[in-house]
Amino acid sequence: MRGFINNDFLLSTKMARKLYHEAAALEPVFDYHCHLVPQEIAENRRFPDLTAVWLGGDHYKWRMLRANGFSEQLITGNADPYDKFLAWAQTVPRLIGNPLYHWTHLELQRYFDIHEPLNPRSAPAIWKAANEQLKNNPELSVFGIFKKFNVFALGTTDDPADTLEWHEKVRTLIKTKILPSFRPDQILNIEKPGFAEYMKKLGAAAGKNISNLDDLLAAIRERINFFDKSGCCISDHDLEFVPFAASREDGIARPEMINRRRWEDEIKEIFSQAMEEKIPDGRSCESWKTYLLNFLGGEYYDRGWVMQLHVGALRSVNSTALKKLGPNTGFDAVHDHAAAEKLSRLLDLLHSAGKLPKTVLYSLNLKDYYPLATIMGCFQDEDCQPRSSAGKMQLGSAWWFLDHLDGMETQMKVLGNAGLLSRFIGMLTDSRSFLSYPRHEYFRRILCNILGNWVEQGEIPRDFALLDGMVRDIAFRNAAQYFNIMKGNAN
User: Which of 33, 99, 108, 275 is the most exposed place for a label (fewest CB within 10 A)?
Assistant: First the structure.
């Protein structure tokens, strides 16, 4: 019988163990999409206690604390940090079956060398031991964590109006590449309150007065150029659903049937109304998002950037909680919008103009995996900017509510069935926590176990050299090539 989270955790065959320990575990980490705060990185933050580093901002854990009956005071409120930690210690034994049970104990082991399961009995000793290390161990500063977990590079998530000053400050301080990512959600979300006010902020950042559509497109291009000079090679879009709508007359017509002038005239009118703080109707909002994504995709293509599309999150379901606590506090869910037809039209619109960038498609709903995997196969070609010869279109890793053992296995097996698993760009944390790097280990163990089981079942050769290369590619090398981060040194 194996011990709990031992050296061969999740590795059920001899080949799986060999692949993990002799290949996957040796590769650096490229966490190409996360929500870490650049200022905290540049300032090499040290955390005062385990609650601050572990529970602060982690809405995954907040949801489970609520599910276990704890008051908001002990979750996002101003309760004593130790009391919040004790609430988590009471919750952890109830987490069996949830990935947080594994992640919690992996984090205790990998960061603090604490191997005892967390529960109310062990909590006082774990609190004391972990806090002593946070205070005295240089490996638990931000820079120390990056070194300890061999983090070669990471991609933050940044608004187009951001100054990127913290990226500039950290550039010469550490070897880890801290890459900005262009996240223009506030430009696309024309229906949200504050759109017109945000245009002033964006214009100020670009040094332009934004009063019409041409001004906006020029300002966006200026900010993209600024991000590009700052080392950005990644964009990201949070989309509740995949939009596609041209003019009211053209609808979801194929690219060659769209009257571009008529569409642009409608977009100009939509923008004009929004600048007068009039909220466009749903059809107009979708047309706006489609137009802007088409424009942005072309700009990304011209610079060799990767476009990430995150689809399927139903945001801020609990309106009372949104009003009280704000967004990203654990009140989001999985959406069930249809994705296939509009996604295919959007990609075709870009491709028909010769402007489809390298694209990563994520969905929060398992039902979308086969549609996404098969649609992206229709747009695979050698036309990558800069050329990387393979894997232009990617099925993104299991994301958010799906980044558990079953979700990761499903995503990789769908990709294997419908595409090339060997070209997969691998794992990301999508995290706001500096304690999330064991999720890369978790992913790599699952990958190696899949391959090891296929070997044992006689489905693939018992060829370590072949599988060693495949594992190393998926763990790090494919992403490094895909995002073109090996050229030069951003730091």
Answer: 275
